[in-house]
Amino acid sequence: MGITVDEQNHASRSHEPIAIVGMAMRLPGRVNDSESFWRMLIEKRSGLCDVPKDRYHLDAFHDPHGKPGTVRMRQGYFLDDADVRQFDSNVFSSLKKELERLDPQQCQLLEVSYECLENAGCTLWRGRKIGCYAGVFGQDWLDLNAKETQHMGA
Prior knowledge:
Elements: H1 7-12, H2 34-42, E1 49-50, H3 58-61, E2 75-76, H4 96-100, H5 104-119, H6 140-147
Antiparallel strand pairs: 1-2
């Protein structure tokens, strides 16, 4: 996908044109790349699914009336095919101990950013004017670590 700005419009604006040359993603509904995203859109599918059993014990927290400390919904938009234990820390140049304590969402972000650069054909990206823009949602790890302060580390 590319975005171009014609020269006439460019002359009246102070910003430079950009080009989107690579994509990578993790979305509910087992969407992990632009092809699966496009299929989901064409097939008019939703990423809505039951709460994965390994996420939390739904029956212990579910209340259809929404009492405090419970959840009303039995479904949501989950990355049900993402296994955060499969993170390959050898790819990234950080201390292994630091990478082991990362929020799983940050691990996913590192992997998806790397995939995006690969998808764009960028192999020599250090020191170049390349941006990888990301959007994320959720703070599960932050909430869990607020309760487990011994686990957080330095």
